[in-house]
Write a structure and sequence with these properties.
single chain, 128 residues, alpha+beta, YaeB-like fold, 2 domains, 5-stranded mixed β-sheet, 5 strands, 41% helix, elongated
Length: 128
Amino acid sequence: MTRIKRFAYFFGGFSVGVVILMFFLGGKNASCAYGPNARVLKNIRIKSPEVSEQALAGMTANGLDTSEVRRFLQIGKVLFRDSNVKINDSCKKYVIRGKAKDNERYLMQVKNCDSTAFITDFSKYVED
């Protein structure tokens, strides 16, 4: 069997498999969060986080609203070296860096507990 026939059989079977998977998984809300950044953000999103007064004051001081919280939890980056993720703690504290619609960078601090997530602080990101 020549290489061209092998590739033809492979891509034919691959395309049929993709179509079958799309048919079975098309209506479901399936997602793949493999990396640590994606897993943390997804875990916080599932809990529908609450915004503290201090974070709300920081957001209004910078002219932002609560829709930026959802945006940061979708496309933000978790800064693990600045976070406190001790294994024995029931509430882990994460620092999330995100870019707002005005292309300014901000930091959001989240206290992620077992059943709830609290956004404790929101400030402008200043690079060192």
